[in-house]
Design the sequence.
């Protein structure tokens, strides 16, 4: 199966990312061989739009698009048709959580159903975790997930980060900011820097070809910090996820000085 096509497992749903003539046959085989798989769907478009949606077609099994995914000790409920979620970023989410110090105030931008916020809140002693997401449906699931995981220190906010952060930053300056959505028309670093203070660690993501790593992302950071009249220092950078031939989702961690 793995040799025939690429797929993701989200909860009890499999999403095929490469269509073949044998997709339906392979889907039925997956369900028969794996008791935890109840539904198989097929991507019919790439993820697109501000709300990060992909068109999915039902192939086999139960006709449902809602599931509960288990990751890093967290329960994550979502509808795969209306909410963006990548199980392939599980290690990256845990990697950031391991860096969070007790008492930190953490902001997650473009938070979706709140996987980064949930993993941080569940696995650390962060004081407060805020998750901001534009997609209304995803925010509804984020709030439900906060309840499912019995988290008292986590808040999900629906709306545009450009509008929310200026208001939020008047009350709170964050110790750590996760910018979990790469390559938008606007890099949103100006918004993140408004919520930052001296010593804030920012995790910035970008899609880069190997020849541009990590300088393509660092140039954006340099431009944004210069405009904000702030200084910064790169802590580390890493390849978070391969997204194509010699193309990666890259994470650059830097500290505001």
Sequence:
């Amino acid at each position: 199966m793995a040799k025939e096509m690429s797929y993701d497992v989200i909860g009890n749903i499999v999403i095929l990312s490469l269509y073949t003539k044998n997709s339906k046959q392979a889907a039925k085989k997956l369900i028969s061989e794996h008791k935890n798989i109840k539904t198989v769907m097929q991507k019919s478009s790439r993820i697109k739009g501000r709300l990060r949606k992909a068109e999915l077609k039902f192939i086999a099994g139960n006709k449902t698009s809602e599931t509960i995914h288990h990751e890093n000790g967290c329960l994550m409920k979502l509808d795969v048709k209306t909410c963006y979620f990548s199980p392939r970023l599980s290690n990256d989410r845990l990697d950031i959580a391991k860096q969070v110090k007790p008492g930190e105030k953490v902001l997650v931008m473009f938070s979706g159903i709140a996987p980064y916020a949930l993993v941080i809140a569940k696995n650390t002693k962060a004081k407060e975790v805020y998750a901001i997401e534009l997609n209304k449906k995803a925010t509804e699931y984020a709030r439900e997930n906060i309840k499912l995981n019995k988290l008292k220190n986590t808040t999900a906010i629906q709306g545009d980060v450009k509008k929310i952060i200026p208001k939020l930053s008047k009350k709170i300056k964050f110790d750590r900011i996760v910018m979990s959505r790469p390559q938008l028309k606007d890099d949103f670093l100006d918004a993140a820097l408004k919520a930052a203070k001296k010593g804030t660690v920012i995790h910035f993501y970008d899609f880069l070809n190997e020849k541009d790593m990590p300088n393509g992302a660092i140039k954006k950071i340099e431009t944004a910090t210069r405009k904000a009249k702030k200084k910064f220092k790169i802590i580390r950078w890493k390849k978070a996820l391969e997204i194509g031939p010699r193309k990666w989702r890259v994470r650059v961690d830097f500290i505001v000085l």
